[in-house]
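Long-time lurker, first post. I've been practising inverse folding by hand and with some scripts of my own, and I keep getting stuck on stretches where the structure tokens seem ambiguous. Below is the full token string for one chain I'm working on. Before anyone asks, I'm not after the true native sequence, just a reasonable design that respects the backbone. If someone could post their per-position residues I'd love to compare against what I wrote down in my notebook.
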């Protein structure tokens, strides 16, 4: 039986259907989509002048090249006016990312649209308050009063925010873009000072790629075109066919097949050889990304299978081969990198003091990868082409590296290999993350430490909570009961702590007013240090939400305007709102705004105007764009030359407006966005670090990775 019932026909969008630009809510690729919305009861016709597609539907669409439209791309929703509307979400032909193609994920975007005829009818629509073992709907006014009262009560008793813990996204896509991220940052970092905050997919607030950033290379530095232009693509701990499907099949695979040779000839230097690309997959498992490429070009695909956790040793071994065989440009290294630190890299990472044969024997023993494969990989990555032209290699890594043992050294070793071979900043090169989702980070400075070399690591919030610390836990758009490491222990412990508060609130009768409930919650929290008050903010009743004391209904993808960048190009686009959220659900930024304003009211009532002002950050936010523009002020001055783009934050969009993004449509603009000093025009950045690296002196900072002795 099919998961989605097959239908004989689908409704055709009429000529007057409203059309919106959208971007897929799922993976890092950021495929473009068109959304068509029109009232139920109206219908378009099959002729080009009768439908919003502008297509002749009297005959089948051409395979692969035609407009895709399936049962999973259609839904019926209900507007605020009570009318039913058709919603059709199809891949956009004018998107440079997917070119009308789509993945199995993106092809189901319409199934997530709030509708009364499928599972989405279970969306959270009103704030819910736990009373005993039941939830009852309450007004937003009561929900905000409860939130503000408990937060302020904890601050007043403690004199700080150290008993407030948060689990929140720090990304884009899925309805959380720059707008919601900025709202969260203003509340948690500028108004409050929350140190016990964890990112949605890990138990602390920290970057996974300090090993690259502290070298001067932000992890998003290449563009999708580089996958088409590369002589060699290295997928290191990244299974792109499964987790970045369209990026793989639309851009990587055509390169291996030889379909992009003409593009290479146009982009390369005069006389530089251009041929079908090579692919190196580095993964302990034989992934689908390897097997698919091997079917197309078995002689141009290689699989290296290192022992778990030994990738940085493998990367250093490839770099040692590069050094021994002279596959580097010393003039480039001297001009663009810190040569004093390079000496440490040569001794610690390349181990130049150890004879080459002895070095390679040790590498083979630890990594399990044969010397011949390592040397062949070095040739594919860096051996000059005919005419002494440098090879162009694009290296993409993901969870297999960033969630690896010795994460810092793993990432550092890979990016250093790329710089050693001058494979950053040129067409067809780059070294960065594939990404798990799209990005959209803009916040005030966080009161948390950075990497292990800059005051870190930050607090493990999961352990903080399971150790019985903290009194207020706010979970936003994630489900730690299912996803956090060691989740069964975490779930059991948080249930114990929240249950203590729930039982205590019921003793002697539930409080009759919100004010009484606030007072009783605070009394219990300070009488029993193990009790915990939990709030969940989401679009569904998650597993974590079942233990919450208060649930806040949020808007989802397509129910507000938001902006994000994809990972393979840093392409900033407007994800246009095409429907209203159900019931009284609100965008996250608006929830943060109202919580802040309610806290401000309580402080003003006590005559504490200065403290109240900190929480009034959103008083002038009326629209999604208001938040977007306010967030831009967190970025530095972007009036810099092309040669100085490395000085800019990776996601800097200062000067960009919704009007510009609507004008650009699926084409978007690549961050960091510069305002050209000569013309005053906003200019996107295709690829990064062509001229300088992102360090104070513009030079790449080498790092000698940890020694191998005793490595398991």
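-- Answer (accepted) --
I ran through it position by position. Result:
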């Amino acid at each position: 039986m099919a998961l989605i019932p097959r239908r004989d026909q689908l409704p055709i969008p009429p000529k007057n259907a409203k059309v919106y630009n959208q971007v897929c809510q799922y993976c890092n690729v950021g495929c473009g989509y068109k959304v068509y919305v029109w009232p139920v009861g109206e219908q378009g016709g099959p002729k080009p002048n009768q439908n919003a597609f502008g297509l002749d539907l009297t005959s089948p669409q051409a395979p692969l090249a035609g407009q895709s439209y399936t049962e999973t791309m259609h839904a019926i929703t209900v507007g605020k006016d009570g009318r039913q509307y058709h919603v059709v979400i199809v891949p956009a032909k004018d998107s440079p990312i997917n070119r009308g193609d789509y993945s199995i994920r993106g092809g189901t975007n319409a199934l997530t649209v709030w509708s009364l005829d499928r599972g989405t009818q279970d969306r959270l629509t009103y704030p819910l308050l736990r009373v005993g073992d039941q939830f009852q709907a309450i007004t937003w006014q009561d929900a905000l009063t409860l939130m503000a009262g408990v937060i302020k009560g904890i601050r007043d008793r403690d004199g700080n925010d150290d008993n407030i813990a948060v689990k929140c996204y720090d990304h884009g896509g899925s309805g959380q873009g720059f707008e919601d991220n900025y709202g969260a940052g203003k509340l948690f970092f500028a108004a409050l000072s929350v140190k016990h905050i964890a990112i949605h997919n890990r138990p602390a607030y920290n970057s996974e790629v300090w090993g690259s950033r502290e070298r001067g290379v932000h992890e998003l530095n290449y563009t999708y075109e580089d996958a088409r232009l590369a002589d060699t693509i290295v997928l290191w701990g990244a299974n792109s066919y499964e987790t970045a499907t369209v990026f793989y099949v639309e851009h990587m695979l055509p390169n291996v097949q030889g379909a992009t040779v003409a593009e290479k000839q146009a982009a390369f230097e005069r006389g530089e050889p251009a041929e079908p690309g090579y692919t190196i997959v580095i993964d302990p498992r034989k992934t689908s990304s390897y097997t698919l490429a091997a079917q197309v070009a078995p002689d141009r695909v290689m699989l290296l299978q290192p022992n778990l956790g030994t990738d940085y040793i493998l990367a250093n071994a490839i770099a040692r081969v590069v050094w021994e065989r002279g596959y580097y440009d010393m003039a480039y290294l001297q001009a663009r990198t810190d040569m004093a630190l390079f000496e440490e890299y040569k001794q610690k990472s390349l181990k130049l003091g150890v004879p080459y044969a002895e070095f390679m024997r040790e590498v083979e023993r630890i990594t399990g990868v044969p010397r011949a494969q390592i040397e062949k990989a070095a040739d594919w990555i860096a051996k000059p082409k005919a005419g002494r032209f440098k090879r162009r290699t694009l290296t993409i890594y993901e969870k297999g590296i960033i969630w690896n043992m010795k994460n810092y050294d793993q990432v550092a070793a890979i990016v250093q290999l790329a710089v050693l071979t001058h494979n950053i900043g040129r067409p067809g090169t780059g070294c960065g993350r594939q990404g798990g989702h799209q990005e959209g980070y803009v916040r005030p400075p966080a009161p948390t430490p950075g990497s292990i070399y800059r005051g870190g690591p930050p607090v493990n919030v999961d352990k903080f909570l399971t150790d019985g610390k903290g009194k207020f836990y706010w979970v936003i758009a994630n489900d730690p009961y299912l996803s956090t490491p060691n989740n069964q222990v975490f779930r059991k412990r948080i249930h114990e702590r929240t249950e203590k508060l729930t039982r205590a609130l019921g003793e002697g009768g539930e409080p009759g007013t919100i004010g009484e409930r606030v007072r009783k919650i605070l009394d219990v929290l300070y009488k029993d240090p193990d009790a915990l008050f939990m709030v969940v903010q989401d679009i569904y009743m998650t597993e974590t939400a079942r233990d919450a004391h208060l649930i806040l209904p949020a808007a989802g993808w397509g129910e507000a305007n938001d902006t994000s960048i994809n990972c393979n190009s840093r392409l900033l686009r407007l994800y246009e709102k095409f429907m209203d959220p159900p019931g009284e659900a609100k965008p996250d930024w608006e929830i943060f705004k109202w919580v802040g304003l309610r806290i401000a009211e309580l402080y003003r009532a006590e005559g504490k105007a200065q403290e109240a002002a900190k929480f009034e950050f959103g008083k002038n936010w009326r629209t999604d764009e208001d938040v977007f523009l306010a967030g831009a002020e967190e970025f530095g001055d972007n009036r810099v030359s092309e040669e100085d783009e490395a000085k800019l934050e990776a996601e800097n969009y200062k000067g960009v407006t919704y009007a510009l993004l609507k004008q650009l449509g699926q084409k978007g603009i690549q961050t960091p966005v510069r305002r050209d000093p000569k013309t005053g025009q906003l200019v996107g950045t295709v690829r990064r670090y062509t001229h300088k690296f992102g360090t104070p002196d513009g030079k790449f900072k080498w790092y000698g990775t940890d020694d191998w002795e005793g490595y398991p």
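A couple of notes from the structure itself: The first helix runs from residue 140 to 158. Residues 203 and 463 are 8 Å apart (CA to CA). Happy to go over any region you disagree with.
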